[in-house]
């Protein structure tokens, strides 16, 4: 999947600085980001690392100025990063049903328990 920075900014309700047509193919930690990936930088330490990284774009807090890469400025950078992460790496489907070792696996006992207690409830 590939999204433009403009599309991601719409998703997270952010403001783009620099080129909004940059294509993003994934999400990565600032230390591991490569071309085509977006990363998160909140503190001065990580803003410095993001400037030196190979990331194509960075999610930053509002007010970050003069950044060398295209950025999405948002009120809540962690939330925005989570939204983008979910877009590129959705949660795997959870299996339905009851696990074989669950204490509730034998739900067929429930009607028998009801039969036993219902006559005494009135």
From TrEMBL:
Gene Ontology cellular component list: membrane
Signal peptide: none
InterPro entries xref list: UDP_GlcNAc_AcTrfase_non-rep (IPR020573)
An example molecular function term from Gene Ontology annotations: acyltransferase activity, transferring groups other than amino-acyl groups
GO biological process: lipid A biosynthetic process
Domain called UDP-3-O-[3-hydroxymyristoyl] glucosamine N-acyltransferase non-repeat region: residue spans: 22-87
Protein name: UDP-3-O-[3-hydroxymyristoyl] glucosamine N-acyltransferase non-repeat region domain-containing protein
Organism field: marine sediment metagenome
């Amino acid at each position: 999947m590939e999204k433009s920075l403009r599309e991601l900014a719409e998703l997270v309700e952010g403001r783009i600085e620099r080129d909004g047509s940059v294509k993003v193919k994934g999400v990565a930690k600032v230390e591991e980001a490569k071309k085509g990936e977006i990363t998160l930088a909140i503190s001065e330490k990580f803003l410095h690392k993001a400037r030196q990284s190979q990331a194509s774009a960075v999610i930053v807090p509002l007010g970050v100025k003069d950044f060398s890469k295209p950025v999405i400025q948002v009120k809540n950078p962690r939330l925005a990063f989570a939204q983008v992460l979910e877009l590129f790496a959705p949660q795997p489907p959870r299996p339905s049903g009851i696990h074989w070792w669950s204490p509730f696996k034998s739900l067929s006992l429930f009607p028998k328990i009801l039969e036993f207690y219902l006559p005494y409830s009135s």
